């Protein structure tokens, strides 16, 4: 891509966002992008490189772990605008290197935090209205399936019929089927004219969020923002229980082992930071390039990135 | 069998699903921030030309279809079949008209055709994109009209019926696009 107008507009928006955070007294930080510990996630792969003496380094997939270490030291509210890397993710909405806006707020209510995120999205997309629904509700609305009561077979049959899922039953787990229905059958219809927030994700769908009880079922305090069917960002009421965090990391590594993926080293300094305490804290990561794509009404993220993977 | 993951499929590749060969038309990568990656793939069945969509986990492995392309020359046609020959090996094959389907109107002796073989069996014959063919029947040409905007029907030596400009006459040789059956120019 060479489009001077978009290059200028990227610079303009970066300046606007920095101004947005400055006015709210949120501090900009620039944590390293090359780290010693990868994000521990079942489905996100870090790119690897090496420090001295064959010591493995990872390009971060988000600045989360180091930002949380800063939070535990009492730095206060912080944000980082950062290039991040996710291995093998290439498509009209994905580029292996992209720009993330990530921030953390202490002692803020859920409602206030949501409004702050909306405010940031509006800088890019204008004064859009918004609405909020839960994962369970939106899933039921489009599929008539109650995710708390359903089983793998029902989900598989639905996916086979409605999205021609061709991966054999034994090669796919229940959560993956649920999520592919969500991503390909439901999400494209979400947020047609307004920003839509989906919250209260199933427990299986979050590594770093707190949980809460709603009508006798436990959900995770994770929330996502959508516009025109595109996922813009993912936020958490941050998990601060280090034991619980450690348990989840181990669980993820078990899942990775079952999938024949690499077992990832756990960041003990992050766990120590959680032990020391983050305080009550909300955090979110928003995709800068996707917002630019929507702002410029482009159908591919490649149209707003200076040198997408294919053009390097 | 050579395999490829769903994420590596690109338009133009050919894979085998349930013992039938498919051509990849497009491949869309789908992945939520947190969650496994999928690919939504549009494919065309090479035998039936039917286009379908399928969703695969990105890591799902598919087998490349054993589809071979080779160039062969049409040496002659018989009642119900055409005989092609490989210029290098002199191997000859007989292709029944039933396999040629709509390509039957583009058979001209001594022309090189692309032959698609699936597991060694012929499944499709592709004529050159542009062919130079003789007009064997059309209404007399109108002198003076060279605009090419008004068209009339014409029969080509291969039995293809196409539309040509008014100034074209019987016996003229024209260039035609075999993908669209459209007149291109007079030769």
Work out the count of structural domains of chain A: 1
The arrangement of helices and strands of chain A along the chain is: HEEEEHEEHEHHHEEEEHHEH
Overall pLDDT of chain B:
89
Classify the helix fraction of chain B into a percent range: under 10%
Shape by Cα distribution of chain B:
flat
In spatial order, strands of the major sheet of chain B run 1-6-2-3-4-5
Give helix and strand order of chain B, one letter per element, not per position. Answer: EEEEEEEEEHEEEEEEE
Our estimate of the beta-strand percent of chain B is: over 45%
Count of discrete alpha- or pi-helical segments spanning 4 or more residues of chain A: 9
How big is the Rg of chain A?
Answer: 19 Å
Summary keywords:
heterodimer, A: 312 residues, alpha+beta, BirA Bifunctional Protein, domain 2, nine-stranded mixed sheet, 9 helices, 23% strand, globular, B: 187 residues, mainly beta, six-stranded antiparallel sheet, five-stranded antiparallel sheet, 16 strands, 2% helix, 54% strand
What can you see in these coordinates?
The complex is a heterodimer of chains A (312) and B (187). Chain A has 312 residues and is α+β, with helices and mostly antiparallel strands. Chain A has one domain: 2-Layer Sandwich (BirA Bifunctional Protein, domain 2), CATH 3.30.930.10. Chain A is 36% helix and 23% strand. Chain A contains 9 helices and 12 strands. Chain A has helices spanning 4-23, 64-72, 110-125, 135-143, 152-163, 174-186, 242-258, 268-276, 288-295, and strands at 27-28, 34-35, 47-50, 56-59, 78-85, 97-106, 130-134, 195-202, 211-214, 217-227, 230-237, 281-287. In chain A, strands 1, 5, 6, 7, 8, 9, 10, 11 and 12 form a 9-stranded mixed sheet that branches. Chain A has a 3-stranded antiparallel sheet with strand order 2-4-3, with no helix packed on it. Chain A is globular. Chain B is mainly β. In chain B, 2% of the residues lie in helices and 54% in strands. Chain B has 1 helix and 16 strands. In chain B, the strands form 3 sheets. Chain B has a 6-stranded antiparallel sheet, with no helix packed on it. In chain B, β3 and β4 form a beta hairpin. The chains are: A alpha+beta (312), B mainly beta (187).
């Amino acid at each position: 891509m060479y489009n001077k107008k978009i290059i200028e507009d990227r610079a303009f928006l970066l300046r606007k966002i920095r101004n947005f955070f400055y006015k709210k007294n949120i501090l900009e930080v620039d944590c390293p992008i090359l780290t010693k510990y990868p994000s521990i996630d079942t489905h996100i792969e870090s790119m690897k490189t090496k420090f001295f003496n064959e010591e493995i380094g990872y390009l971060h997939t988000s600045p989360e772990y180091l930002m949380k270490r800063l939070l535990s030291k009492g730095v206060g509210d912080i944000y980082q605008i950062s290039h991040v890397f996710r291995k093998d993710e290439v498509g009209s909405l994905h580029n292996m290197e992209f720009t993330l806006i990530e921030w953390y707020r202490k002692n803020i209510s859920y409602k206030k935090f949501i409004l702050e995120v909306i405010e940031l999205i509006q800088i890019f997309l204008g004064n859009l209205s918004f609405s909020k629904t839960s994962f369970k509700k939106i899933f039921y609305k489009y599929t008539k399936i109650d995710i708390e009561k359903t089983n793998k077979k029902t989900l598989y049959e639905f996916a086979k019929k409605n999205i021609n899922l061709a991966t054999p039953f034994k090669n796919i787990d229940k959560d993956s089927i649920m999520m592919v229905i969500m991503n390909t059958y439901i999400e494209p219809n979400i947020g047609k004219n307004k920003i839509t927030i989906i919250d209260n994700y199933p427990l299986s769908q979050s590594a770093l969020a707190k949980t809460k009880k709603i009508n006798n079922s436990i959900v995770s305090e994770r929330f996502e923002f959508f516009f025109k069917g595109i996922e813009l960002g993912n936020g958490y009421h941050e998990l601060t229980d280090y034991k619980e965090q450690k348990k989840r990391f181990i669980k993820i590594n078990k899942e990775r082992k079952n999938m024949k993926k690499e077992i990832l080293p756990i960041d003990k300094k992050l766990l120590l930071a959680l032990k020391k305490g983050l305080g009550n804290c909300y955090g979110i990561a928003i995709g800068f390039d996707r917002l630019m794509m929507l702002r410029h009404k482009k159908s591919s993220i490649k149209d707003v990135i200076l040198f997408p993977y294919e053009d390097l | 069998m050579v395999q490829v993951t769903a994420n590596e499929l690109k338009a133009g590749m050919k894979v085998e699903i349930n013992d039938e060969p498919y051509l990849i038309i497009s491949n869309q990568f789908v992945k939520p921030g947190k969650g496994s990656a999928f690919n939504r793939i549009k494919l065309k069945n090479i035998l039936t030309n039917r286009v379908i969509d399928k969703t695969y986990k990105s890591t799902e492995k598919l087998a490349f279809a054993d589809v071979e392309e080779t160039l062969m020359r049409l040496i002659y046609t018989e009642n119900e079949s055409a005989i092609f020959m490989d210029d290098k090996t002199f191997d000859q094959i007989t292709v029944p008209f039933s396999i040629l389907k709509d390509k039957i109107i583009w058979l001209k002796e001594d022309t090189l055709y692309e032959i698609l073989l699936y597991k060694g069996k012929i499944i499709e014959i592709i004529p050159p994109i542009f062919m130079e063919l003789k007009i064997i029947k059309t209404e007399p040409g109108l002198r003076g009209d060279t605009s090419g905007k008004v068209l009339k029907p014409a029969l080509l030596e291969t039995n293809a019926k196409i539309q040509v400009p008014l100034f074209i006459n019987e016996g003229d040789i024209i260039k035609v696009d075999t993908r669209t059956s459209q007149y291109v120019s007079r030769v």
